[in-house]
């Protein structure tokens, strides 16, 4: 009996707390007057469940009635009647039992949202919104003479200190084919003409192999001044001189550019990929097809590479004749 009363009071307390969470502040209940005989077990109930004990579980706002004695009843019936009367009187038993409430901490750390990485295959296979867009050089209102005047007696980089002559682009400025090397050598520096000497003679033969003459094409370099000791031009030196070549290309608008050697390829295309990986396939330079291939000076040192250059030049020839490279 004692444990049942304790359970009942604990449930009442929990229901009251629940109502307080809902915003209720004052509570009142009406309990019926229950009579017990002095000799029944209800008398012990009066002692065990006194108003003083209930105050530990029920707020003082509850007005608990005094218990009065009455005629004795059967022991079992008295206990059942007492429990039922208490439950009906409080009317809290009609509320559903509270589920176990989870506590939340405001100091819990939350993981940052993960960035979803799209698989590379999806990125590669997703077509551009506006199709294949490649930047172009646009229209140029300049002339080759104006570009030469702008270059003047150039002192923009340290290479001017050791040069003999500025080596400008030469040939047919209406040509469909432009050859670009990296920088002048000793012979070019002395004569002021690109690709002379042994390397120039080999280049002439390469041009003739596709049915053209030197007079039909345009020939130049990224840098116009000879580096000391024929060393490779530095990136700042190449980037200083490259805009003039780009302006010339915008004026001439050749169909194909054949870029000769690793240094010229990387400087013109602004890439770190080597010539061995790029050669043999057309690259894009502002809407102009570019064929990287080996430099004639390299072929003089390693004649076995001539076959690869010939394969590259056949693609250039077919592109000039048909608009498509050979397979």
UniProtKB/TrEMBL annotation:
Coiled coil: none annotated. Gene3D superfamilies: Uracil-DNA glycosylase-like domain (3.40.470.10). Keywords: 4Fe-4S, DNA damage, DNA repair, Glycosidase, Hydrolase, Iron, Iron-sulfur, Metal-binding. Residues 168-314 form the Uracil-DNA glycosylase-like domain. The keyword Iron-sulfur applies. The keyword RNA-binding does not apply. It comes from the Bacteria. GO terms for molecular function: 4 iron, 4 sulfur cluster binding; metal ion binding; uracil DNA N-glycosylase activity. Its EC number is 3.2.2.27. SUPFAM superfamilies: Uracil-DNA glycosylase-like. It holds the Pfam family UDG. It catalyses: Hydrolyzes single-stranded DNA or mismatched double-stranded DNA and polynucleotides, releasing free uracil. One of its GO terms (biological process) is DNA repair. Belongs to the uracil-DNA glycosylase (UDG) superfamily. Type 4 (UDGa) family. This is Type-4 uracil-DNA glycosylase. It comes from uncultured Pyrinomonadaceae bacterium.
